[in-house]
Each structure stands twice: as structure tokens, then as C-alpha cells.
Specification:
This protein is α/β, with parallel strands linked by helices and 322 residues long. Helices cover 41% and strands 18% of the residues. Strands 1, 2, 3, 4, 5, 6, 7, 8, 9 and 10 form a ten-stranded mixed sheet that branches. Helix 5 packs parallel to helix 8 and helix 7 packs antiparallel against helix 8.
Length: 322
């Protein structure tokens, strides 16, 4: 296996003492052994360092990078800059992977001469119970532009950095946005997929994504919801500049659905005088979506878009009563 090219496997972590041992155990026991395991400690204050120092002492493939608490984006960016492998993949410190995670990704990519390889995930709670079943597709070899469209639709292919193997060159001039506290992957992955000519996908569930009830993405505060809005608008601006997928109604509907969800979270958790600037920014941005026919986004979404743009106070009263 050492004759195979080096894969840089990047693990950002912050206060991960409850999960890191299981995560690292799954990584160091990969059947694909030619790995560079880059762990970026984002200013942990618990027992995280004790765990990774023990693994580091026993496995020369592990590299530790420390930074002051600055967020997962900066941690991933540091990992990418440190990487010396031909390929990059990610694992989050809350999660764990099957022993053939890297092997399946690599061999799928090589056999099909692809640019990005994808495996599926099992969505579980901390006890290993399945909490969500994602729709799958029988498509294995996917043209780059179709893969990009599927990513923007956000169902068959989702914007998680993990569960994928990338050519390292795809990260040239691409960074995870360090100004966002969450959903930074949502505004990054499309930039990488836009470079792909061919994507290969396996339906094998080799990544175990552990969902916690207290995570930022599952408990959106008004501030984190606004950060999601910023990510959505990054995707929208890109989508508008990409002629190949510009008129896809599924993408339109997905973006509008997310915008309305974010707006609802913000309005229900703030009073009239809170986040006034952000609310007005969202309202003004809706103008770009008014040109789309109701058939593209559905009558309900179409109605709410227009209502908030023209009568934000009335819209706020309506959704606050639901």
C-alpha cells in the first residue's frame, strides 16, 4: 500500500475529548496506510491534547498543529496548507470512519480517472442510532457539471467536506471562509466542484456522521442563521454566474427554501429592534428572486418571497403566529 500516493487526512478538532479517541482509532487503522494525518487543535481547553499526544507518540504519520480558538474554517485552511499529499480528505473529530474509507475513495477515483470521489454517510446519534436517511442515487460516474448541479440541489450530493477525496490542486485559491461561524462548507464546496470534470460516487456508507442536539447547525441562533444566509447568498451569486446550471428549477427552489427558513428563524427569535440591518439586507436580497415564476419555486415560497419583500411587517406577524 505504501506504493500508493500519499493522502493528507485533515481532522479539525475543538474540545473533542468525548469523541476523539474513537475518531483517531478509526483513522490510524485504515487499510490504506499511506496517510498523512493532520490534526488541527483549534484552542481546545479540555482533555483533547492528552488523547492526540498519546496517538502521536505511537504513530509517526500524525502531525499536530495548534492554533488559538479561531473556528473550524481556519483549522481546515491550516490543514490544507500543511498537507503534502497528492490527495486531501477530511474527517471531523466528532465522527468516525470504516477501515476502508480511504481505500474506497482512492480506488474509486483512480479506477474512473475522476477528480473527486464520494462515499455515503450513516447519520447517527451518539448511541449509534440512525436519525436520518439521505436520498441516494444509482449514478456512479457523474459529469462534473451535473455533479455541481446535484451539489447545489443539496440532496444526492451535499456540501460536507468529509466523505470525499479531492485532488490537492483543487484547493488552489480556495479557502474556507474564516469570517463565518458555521455553514462555511456550504459556501466552499461549490468552488471545488466547479473545477471537476468527472466525479465518482459510491453508495457505501463508510462515514459515520454523529449528530448532536446542541450543534450550531441544529440549533440556529439568530446570529448563526444570519451566517447561513451569507453562505446561501455566496452560492446564489456563484449560481447566477454559471450558465450550465443557471436555469435549474430544483436549485432555485432549494436556495429559496433555505432563505425563507433562515429568515423565519431570525424573525421568530428577535424583536422588531434587533438585527434591523441584517433583516433589511435579507429583504433587499429577495428582489433578485422575484423574477422567477411560481412554477419554479412553488406557490407557497413564491407568495412568502413577495410578501416579505413588499410587506415585511405583515410577513413577520404571520410567521410569528405559526
Amino acid at each position: 500500500m505504501n506504493n500508493h500516493p500519499l493522502i493528507s487526512l485533515i481532522i479539525p478538532c475543538y474540545n473533542a475529548e468525548r469523541s476523539l479517541e474513537k475518531c483517531l482509532n478509526s483513522v490510524v487503522h485504515q487499510s490504506y496506510t499511506n496517510l498523512e494525518i493532520i490534526l488541527v487543535d483549534d484552542g481546545s481547553t479540555d482533555g483533547t491534547s492528552t488523547i492526540y499526544k498519546d496517538f502521536e507518540s505511537r504513530d509517526v504519520r500524525i502531525k499536530i498543529i495548534k492554533q488559538e480558538n479561531s473556528g473550524v474554517s481556519k483549522a481546515r485552511n491550516k490543514g490544507v496548507k500543511t498537507a503534502t499529499g497528492e490527495y486531501i480528505c477530511f474527517v471531523d473529530s466528532d465522527d468516525w470512519v470504516e477501515s476502508d474509507y480511504c481505500s474506497e475513495l482512492y480506488h474509486s477515483l483512480i479506477e474512473e480517472n475522476a477528480d473527486i470521489a464520494i462515499v455515503e454517510a450513516s447519520y447517527e446519534d451518539a448511541d449509534g442510532n440512525i436519525v436520518f436517511t439521505k436520498p441516494t442515487s444509482e449514478e456512479k460516474i457523474i459529469d462534473g457539471k451535473r455533479a455541481l448541479a446535484l451539489l447545489l440541489e443539496d440532496h444526492v450530493i451535499q456540501s460536507h467536506p468529509w466523505g470525499k477525496l479531492y485532488k490537492v490542486a483543487f484547493f488552489n485559491n480556495v479557502n474556507f471562509p474564516e469570517n463565518l461561524k458555521c455553514f462555511e462548507d456550504y459556501s466552499t464546496l461549490f468552488k471545488i466542484f466547479d473545477k471537476a470534470v468527472k466525479v465518482v460516487k459510491s453508495n457505501r456508507q463508510l462515514y459515520h456522521y454523529i449528530q448532536h442536539g446542541d450543534s450550531l447547525s441544529h440549533n440556529l441562533s439568530p446570529e448563526t442563521a444570519y451566517h447561513f444566509y451569507l453562505s446561501i447568498m455566496d452560492v446564489f451569486r456563484f449560481w447566477q454566474s454559471t450558465t450550465e446550471v443557471k436555469n435549474d428549477p430544483k436549485i432555485t427552489k432549494n436556495i429559496v427554501r433555505k432563505l425563507l427558513m433562515v429568515l423565519k428563524r431570525i424573525l421568530r427569535q428577535t424583536n422588531k429592534n434587533e438585527m434591523k440591518t441584517e433583516k433589511e439586507q435579507i429583504r433587499k436580497s429577495f428582489k433578485s428572486f422575484l423574477k422567477y415564476p411560481a412554477a419554479n419555486i412553488g406557490l407557497e415560497y413564491y407568495f412568502y418571497l413577495r410578501l416579505y419583500y413588499y410587506s415585511p411587517d405583515l410577513y413577520t406577524k404571520i410567521i410569528s403566529k405559526k
